[in-house]
Amino acid sequence: MKNPYSTGRKAVWCPGCGNYAILAAFKKALQELGLKPWEVVVISGIGCHGRMTDYLSTNGFHTIHGRVLPLATGIKLANPKLTVIGFSGDGDAYAIGLGHLPHAARRNVNVTLIVHDNMIFGLTTGQVTPTTPIGVRTRSTPKGNVEHPLNPVLLALSSGATFVARGFAGEPSHLAWLFKEAISHKGFAIVDVLQPCVTFYNTYQYFKKRVYKLEDEGHDPSNYEAALRKALEWGDRIPIGIFYKTTRPTYEELLLKQKEPPVVVKPVDVTKLYRYFR
Ligand code: SF4
Question: pTM of the full predicted structure?
Fold first, then answer.
């Protein structure tokens, strides 16, 4: 039987790519949450991950490079009843789109961002990104990367995100659980997914040997300082799971209280705007 969230299109990622596990885990999460495809909007950016919108039968928007979060914010403000989920890559979210991440986090926009973090530009055949470790040889760093990598978990925590998690594409059941928790969270949720790019930077065995689950070691996700300490752990052991989770009013709750009701409740006439841009 066809999965209710599948478009039926055959995915064309490289065989063994971590994107397959992310797609399967995401569909499992939607199914277990009982969300209807028409209640969900998924947005994807530019990169190999961008095809997620082709394979999901939810509402979908494949946007321009790095602009997943502004679009997700606009959609949520226009219709707060929708479940809005953005997919982005490390090149998309942490390079060209980085300016949007801290602001979505501090505003606490009620959307989920899932980052396919393969630490390489895969679609353009293997160049360095902001999360590529030091020393890695890529097509743009043939003698080894010399740039200190960005820490997405630490960045999200310090920007005020109310849900911060890391998953691994090699742990698909755990990933589906993380997606469910993130989507159910009221506020800005980010899941940075360690996603091996088997063609240009295959980290599968590296992470398989090192990842451990925070919840197995009694980590308290309500403890911000403990989350910061765990965010700095990267070496022989790499934590996955929920680093931090808290609640505070969402952006749309606060903003829509002050302004006009959302567009879906009180439609606006866009004819003049349309003529202006035509
Ligand atoms: Fe996946 Fe890498 Fe192939 Fe892109 S290039 S589909 S990220 S394995």
Answer: 0.94
